[in-house]
Amino acid sequence: MFKIRLCGVFIITFFILAKISFCSEGNPQELEPIVISKQKQFFLNIYSTDADNDQAFNYQSSIENLSNLPVDLQSRALKSSIQADFSLRGGTFQQILILLNGQRINDPQTAHHNSDIPFTKEDIKKTEVIPGASSSLFGADAIGGAINFALSVPKEKKFVWEFGAGNNRNGYGLFSLSDKFKELGFRVSVEDAQSKGFREDTDYKKFTSSLSTNYDFAQGSWENNFGYQEKNFGAYDFYTPDKGYLSREQTRTYLLSSGLNLSHENLLIKPSFLWRRHYDKFVLDKTQLRSNSVNQHRTDMFTPSIYLQKEIGVLGKVGLGAEWGQERITSTNLGRHVREHKSILLDDSTALGEKWEIGSSLRWDDFSDFGKVYTGSLSAKFKFTFAAAFNFGISRSMRVPSFTELYYSDSTTIGNDGLAAEKSWNYETGFEYKQEGFSTGLCLFLRQEKEMIDWVRSDPTQKWQAKNFTRGNVFGVEYVLHNKFNRLFGLDANYIYTDKNTDSQGYLYKYGPNYAQHLVNTTFNLVLPFGQQEIGFNYKKRPGRRGWLLMNSGFNYNLNRNAKIFLHAENILNVEYQDIAGIPQPGRYIEAGLRLQW
Questions:
Q1: Sequence-ordered list of residues with C-beta below 8 angstroms from that of 528, at least 6 positions apart, any chain
Q2: What contacts 182, CB < 8 A, 6 or more positions away?
Q3: How many CA atoms lie within 13 A of 292 on its CB side?
Q4: Computed from CA positions of residues 223, 155, 207, 293, in that sequence, does the dihedral angle turn out positive or negative?
Q5: 490: closest CA among 549, 529, 531, 534?
Q6: Quick one: how far is CA 276 from the chain centroid?
């Protein structure tokens, strides 16, 4: 009944409010699109990349761009956009919530597919990293934090053609066209990338296409985004470290996101809908195509929702949201399963005088397989000067197991359909200082985890099995710095220390403690008369392993206002390292290309 009522509310709101907007008196005016999403609420910490800021690194995708933020990007391929896991503050790859325009898009089969985002870097305006306490606002999976990919709205005529080529016979081409006719804007983007790989079974092909439209009217806008992506890549030991399997994986992703952004008599209203379909074909050993070596999966996600926000006196901005979601899987290995959830959200952000900002949220979720769960957050910021502030936060988060953790089975691994949902409490406090050209921040965080899930076994003769652990604590320190020394030279740096204490209960771990105990990113920016130069250093150390230091560089040379050539180099020192133990990473990589834009 809840599903029927929520879909009814969604449909009725969609059409009635659209009718009100289209029938308003007077002609539609050229307005900035009104963005109504939970990202506009008060957050303690948020780090972002902005596509409007020209960057000399000239990454192929927005996922690669995350490598300079406080994110542990665990790549298995030459390019992170082919296959990578995300980790924040010591969380596992399953404990990170992935959002598109504020809507959850985590893959229900396994979070290994969370990097299958079917949009190009021309479609994504900004990537936002929301670690810790504030991220619980968005629902399940945000135990370590959330990463939001915010799509840009087509609002001007723009043509982009870019191509690049590098060693390992790597190359890509990107085309994007956007325009606006009165109130209707659209964008079409197409990207094709391929590589022969840096060693056997590391080749790949990737194709991405997308279509975006936006219609502005007097009281808001209507935005639609559709993306398609297919990947075909060698997956050498991707999920079986040190076994030496020559594996193969093919994925296809369809994603449709639609939403109205409306303002009516000081009330902000956002009904939205998201559908994601994902196909995955995985061959464990492509040299022996036995029936039990080939797995094929199809998953579907449907999420209609509605969010309302109104400013109410001393209460500030009060938001109310309702959501229904369904996840389906049809798999040769995992079987057929359907699960649903329904959610109600209440959030508030307000300023108390000139010194205090307060944010809070309360969320109720009812999962068909895991029952009712309450989560929420409370955060505060105290500004003791115009530029400096202290902040505090506490939140409760949860995660339901993936279909793989519940039902997977092969010769070495077995799922567990009796798994319970993970739960955690996040605590953090910090200091920040911001002024023009300079900002810095220090944060201490603590996460208390309960019923965490990992793949373990008691001795080497047993299969790996997914199990819940009783408790674990994660403590850490996070520091960020931005300094624009002058109009020519700048520095961006961040450092995260994480200590994770979990009772292993005598089990052996499949992947081991695979979080970044020390993570350092430093980027030097130099603006030259003819272009821009960036030099970056990334240091990462995991528990029980040696750390490694990577040096990267990017250079742009402006031919004219519409054209530039670029040179991008990664791992310049040719360091041998394994981001995930047992899976070798590429050595030195150099790429050059041309970008035309007008």
A1: 488
A2: none
A3: 6
A4: negative
A5: 534
A6: 15
Residue corresponding to tokens 């804007």: 185
Provide the β-strand partners of residue 398: 423
The two tokens of residue 42 are 């008060």
Complete DSSP assignment for 318-335: EEEEEEEEEEEEEETTTE
Burial state string for 527-553 with b = 16 or more CB within 10 A and e = fewer than 16:
eeeebbbbbbebebbbeeeeebebbbb
Query: What is the predicted pLDDT for the residue at 6?
Result: 41
Write down the domain spans for the chain.
2-24+35-597
Taking CA atoms, 387 is separated from 40, 131, 200, 395, in Å, by: 21, 22, 53, 26
Return the CATH superfamily for domain 2-24+35-597: TonB-dependent receptor, beta-barrel domain (2.40.170.20)
* Residue 2 phi, psi (nearest 5): -60, -40
Q: Using the predicted structure, report yes or no on whether residue 349 has a pLDDT greater than 60.
A: yes
Residue 35 has pLDDT above 50, yes or no: no
Q: What is the pLDDT of residue 56?
A: 66
Q: Dihedral of CA 24/25/27/30: which sign?
A: negative
DSSP letter at 94 equals G
SS3 at position 553: strand
Query: Are 551 and 571 in contact, with CB atoms under 8 Å apart?
Result: yes
Report whether 171 contacts 432 (CB < 8 A). no
Write out the two tokens for 184. 């209707």
As a whole number of Å, the end-to-end CA separation of the chain is: 52
Report the distance separating Cα 95 and Cα 93, nearest Å.
6
Q: Which of 221, 122, 138 is nearest to 178 (CA)?
A: 122
- Provide the pairing of β-strand 96-100 with 145-151: parallel
**Cα–Cα distance for residue pair 449/472, rounded to 1 Å:** 5
State yes or no: pLDDT of 505 exceeds 90: no
CA nearest 530: which of 565, 495, 505?
565
Integer Cα distance of 162 and 176 in angstroms? 9
